[in-house]
């Protein structure tokens, strides 16, 4: 591909990169996707699973939702547990029957990849981007190394950085040109993927003095759990026996289903931090998804936020390339900021509601958390604002 020129280069074949490339390809705009990992790794990488209603609408609009609509399960309720009690919040009641779709990210990625490649799309696996230059000039140059170790380059009008917060695209921008607002919550989540049937038919959020626990829906034979743990903890500190004991304690209620111990397929620590890039554009480079913002797993917003970025950028690029109208490109950073901060507000509220507080007033704050959940339990209408934001 040395010396080739294409209108758009996408770095990264995650959900945002593939949605962006698919929409551009559908519009007849040549695009190449450069992905550092193998196709097998990309298609098996387990991440998110909760897909918002508006995300499904976006995918359906562009013919990208067939597999999801055929195989996903739909959910309109979530459950909260606290102080030995449990209650179900029917958020669909407040949202015009809008609901979540549960479809593991790796399955969506597989659908997007298969569809794009079947339609003649250009995706290069095991081809990491090594350098991006010329971003403030007439054209950018993207350099890469292909799977056999040969260096190459491609000249392009626009670069979409969908390669995460540690990817080559962010590194191509001077640090002073990427002002960020960050927060460190000084705690971690232990993410657990188990070969066990779901705890319940709904998402379950448990408030507990030792830290929150979350049951996230995945498939009929696997479950995703999150445990709030100390910042100093390491995965090796958490044996399978300890994990199941702690899950049992934190989800404990008098009358509800409990986690069923079984094989644990994967564990990992997620730092509870957020970061928002205030201006996710530098010349011909546009940052998308995790490259532009990091958000905690609370509420399952990350993948949905990234796909919304991709859809907005795709529309802006189509207008710029087809007709020279760069209004959408100019407005892209402001749109990302508005959407990201609205999502951060929701995620921060969930953390404030569920996570174990620190400090001398820890007991007081835990009692306030319990009181808030009790209020929602006694009057679901008081949770209507949460319901609207939760379903997206």
Describe the structure.
This protein has 392 residues and is of the alpha+beta class. The protein has helices at residues 15-26, 39-44, 53-61, 66-71, 105-118, 168-171, 240-250, 302-323, 327-354, 362-378, 384-391; strands at 4-11, 31-34, 50-51, 73-75, 77-82, 85-90, 100-102, 122-124, 129-133, 140-145, 151-161, 180-194, 203-206, 213-217, 223-229, 264-277, 281-282, 285-287, 293-294. It is 35% helix and 28% strand. Strands 1, 2, 8, 9, 10, 11, 17 and 18 form an 8-stranded mixed beta sheet that branches. Strands 6-5-13-14-15-12-16-19 form an 8-stranded mixed beta sheet. The protein has a 3-stranded antiparallel beta sheet with strand order 3-7-4. It is elongated, with a radius of gyration of 22 Å. 45% of the residues are buried.
Mean pLDDT: 93
| Biggest beta sheet attributes | 8 strands, mixed
Number of strands: 19
Structural class: alpha+beta
List keywords for this structure.
8-stranded mixed β-sheet; alpha+beta; 392 residues; elongated
In brief:
The protein is an alpha+beta fold and 392 residues long.
């Amino acid at each position: 591909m040395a010396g080739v020129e294409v209108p758009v280069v996408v770095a990264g074949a995650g959900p945002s990169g593939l949605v962006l490339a698919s929409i551009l390809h559908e519009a007849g705009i040549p695009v190449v996707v450069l992905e550092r990992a193998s196709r097998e790794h990309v298609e098996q990488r387990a991440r998110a699973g909760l897909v918002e209603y508006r995300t499904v609408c976006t995918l359906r609009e562009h013919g990208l939702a067939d597999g999801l609509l055929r195989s996903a399960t739909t959910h309109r309720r979530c459950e909260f547990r606290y102080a030995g009690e449990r209650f179900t919040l029917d958020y669909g009641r407040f949202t015009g029957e809008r609901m979540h779709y549960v479809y593991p990210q790796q399955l969506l990625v597989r659908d997007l990849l298969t569809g794009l490649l079947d339609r003649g799309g250009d995706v290069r696996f095991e081809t990491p981007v090594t350098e991006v230059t010329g971003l403030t000039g007439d054209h950018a140059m993207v350099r890469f190394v292909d799977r056999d170790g040969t260096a190459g380059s491609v000249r392009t009008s626009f670069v979409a950085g969908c390669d995460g917060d540690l990817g080559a695209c962010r590194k191509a921008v001077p640090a002073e040109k990427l002002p960020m607002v960050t927060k460190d919550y000084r705690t971690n989540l232990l993410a657990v993927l188990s070969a066990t049937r779901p705890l319940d038919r709904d998402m379950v959020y448990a408030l507990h003095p030792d830290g929150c626990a979350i049951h996230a829906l995945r498939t009929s034979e696997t479950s995703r759990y999150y445990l709030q743990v100390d910042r100093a903890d390491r995965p090796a500190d958490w044996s399978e026996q300890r994990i199941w004991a702690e899950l049992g304690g934190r989800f404990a209620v008098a009358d509800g289903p409990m986690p069923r111990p079984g094989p644990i397929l994967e564990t990992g620590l997620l730092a509870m931090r957020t970061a928002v890039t205030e201006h996710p554009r530098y010349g011909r480079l546009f940052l998308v998804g995790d490259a532009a913002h990091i958000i905690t797993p609370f509420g399952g917003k990350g993948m949905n936020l990234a796909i919304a970025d991709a859809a907005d950028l795709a529309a802006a690029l189509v207008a710029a390339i087809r007709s020279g109208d760069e209004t959408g490109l100019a407005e892209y950073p402001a749109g990302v900021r508005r959407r990201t901060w609205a999502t951060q507000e929701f995620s921060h509220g969930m953390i404030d509601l569920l996570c174990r507080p620190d400090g001398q007033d820890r007991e007081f704050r835990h009692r306030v958390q319990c009181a808030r959940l009790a209020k929602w339990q006694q009057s679901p209408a008081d949770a209507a604002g949460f319901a609207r934001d939760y379903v997206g």
